[in-house]
């Protein structure tokens, strides 16, 4: 939600260029790039919180919480910012002191705030309850001990069940 909101129009206004009014618009990414960057960090942390265990889960949950808080703060600060439109007005008019008139803001910054609040809430929940969540299974992880080689069983290529049993044992039934 926060990532989507940063790609939408956050503000609009008009600049006076050569005696005429010139309409200008600014997307959220023009105003500030922080919410979009933190939304990507938050999405990655949201996935990673289920993949890590113990202290790693607490660290990732803290990162998730901080990214949500950062999105909320940056979007609230950018909601009333006119610097991006002033910069566009200066470029359009060729006058570095040009500013935007009839400035209005849309609701998209507040959608980014809501998305950041959801990420913040997810981080707080992960900090509070994450210790009791089950971790991903380590069933298929190797422990580093050398594997004992077993003598391969002779596989009859005419019997499919022997081929499947060899595959289940981890043997290559096509090898000599």
Topology:
Layout: H1 2-5, E1 9-17, E2 20-27, H2 28-31, H3 34-48, H4 54-79, H5 83-93, E3 101-105, H6 108-129, H7 160-169
Antiparallel strand pairs: 1-2, 1-3
In short:
The chain is an alpha+beta fold and 176 residues long.
Describe the structure.
The protein contains seven helices and three strands, in the order H-E-E-H-H-H-H-E-H-H. By secondary structure, the protein is α+β, with helices and mostly antiparallel strands. The chain folds into two domains: 2-132, no CATH class; 149-176, no CATH class. Strands 2-1-3 form a three-stranded antiparallel β-sheet. The protein is elongated. The termini are far apart. The mean pLDDT is 86.
Poorly predicted regions are none
Largest sheet report: 3 strands, antiparallel
- Indicate how many domains the architecture comprises: 2
Order of helices and strands: HEEHHHHEHH
Q: Roughly what is the average pLDDT, rounded to an integer?
A: 86
Number of strands: 3
Task: Tell me the β content.
Answer: 5-15%
End-to-end Cα distance, whole Å, is 57 Å
Radius of gyration: 28 Å
Strand order in the largest sheet: 2-1-3
Helix content percent band: 40-55%
Structural class of the helix and strand makeup? alpha+beta
CA-based shape: elongated
- Give the count of helical stretches: 7
